[in-house]
Amino acid sequence: MTVFSPPQHGSWVPLYRHLGPCSPPSSFTGAAKKKPPSLADLLRQDQLRVDHIHRRLSESGEAVGVSKEGSSVKDPLRFEAAYLHDQPVIQVLLGSQPKSSDEQQQSQPPGVVQTVVLDTATDVPWVQCVPCPIPSCHPQTDTVYDPTKSSTYDPVSCGSPACAQLGRLYSGSWANGHCQYRVRFPNSNASSSSGTYATDLLAVGPNSQIPFRFGCSHADAADQGGGGSDNATAAGVMALGGGPESLPSQAAASYGPAFSYCIPAAGSRRPGFFVLGGVVSYSQYVATPMLRYQRVPTFYRVRLIGIAVNGQLLNVTPSAFAAGAVLDARAAVTRLPPPKGGLLDACYDLAGAFVPPRIELVFERGNVLELDRTGVLFHDCLAFAANRDDRMPGIIGNLQQQTMEVLYDVGAGAVGFRRGAC
């Protein structure tokens, strides 16, 4: 496969898989020592995330057929399994904390390195902040961000427009005149990240500092010992959703209303990349219109009209795809209309020279995207599952996105896919 360099525009940083062989050596040493999760735990984590997206849409009235009472997955996910789920992560610099003498000699800009999980299905970025005692917080391998050591840290006041912008979904109580936030986790109704909503400087790549609003978390584990944070060992979450609080929305004035990423294949020794910035040309991309929900701007959606396997279109009526499909950087397995069958129900004997089937997604306007063969199978089974109701949107998971650059051109209302980008 030809490996391309990241786009020559905007500001970019390497992107790693949470537990991949090329992950930052300082970031996941603690996680690597823990017992890997079972397939059942991974699938349960995936279903909880899908249920969370569907529930958000149902509660807003944007989708029907989703129970508001709770997830279809009843058992709480084991904490260890949750944060061993393979997630896309990047490293950023937060704040203006002075560097050590060695780091100054290496011309490192001020701030502390924070390893954060990329999340396209939430809007408020957050990191753990001092004080953040365990078990209210989870252990992390990066230095915990200390607002008292950053001269540019500034808590958001409770009466400010930025605080009001959080709305009912993300707002918390007030404390000492400072705005408080709360982000609930999809793996448990009882767990969330909460703390002070604040501003500081953020660098995504060299020479790229921007003013940045984020949650300064002082608690992010489950309230009653269930679920817990699904980001442990990472410092927090970099929210990429379409709401005004997200990183792309905040960075649009500096880099334009677009971002992209390329998630490397599982086991790859090459990193991917994350880019803040616009697109110069669509000549290398398979493009399709970006669809948005009026009441839930968080999610980015596209419309499929068909799926082909080894060149043959599946016998699925176009109306089955009418709800569209939400792009998600953290769910692994793609969700399709119910006629496609159950969870991972087509499995293969990989003995011998087995070649995975060629699978193509057909978008509206007839644009066809061939998936990378590394993203077709998951534990020897097709990495596709059925939605519980065809009125729900599908989910295009990160297994199917891997090795290709996924471009979110928010300003132009388009999504682009560039194959073989990492």
Helical segment count: 8
Residue windows where pLDDT falls under 50 for at least 5 positions: 27-33, 66-84, 223-228
* Residues in helix, %: 10-25%
Task: Note the quaternary state here.
Answer: single chain
Strand ordering within the main sheet = 2-3-9-4-8-7
What is the global morphology? globular
Say how many strands there are: 25
| β-sheet strand percentage | 25-35%
The largest sheet, given as strand count, sense and whether it forms a barrel, is:
6 strands, mixed, barrel
Rg estimate, integer Å: 21 Å
* Terminal residue distance: 9 Å
Give the overall pLDDT as a whole number. Answer: 82
Structural class: alpha+beta
InterPro entries: Aspartic_peptidase_A1, PEPTIDASE_A1, Peptidase_aspartic_dom_sf, TAXi_C, TAXi_N
Protein name: Peptidase A1 domain-containing protein
Pfam families: TAXi_C (PF14541), TAXi_N (PF14543)
Domain Peptidase A1: 101-422
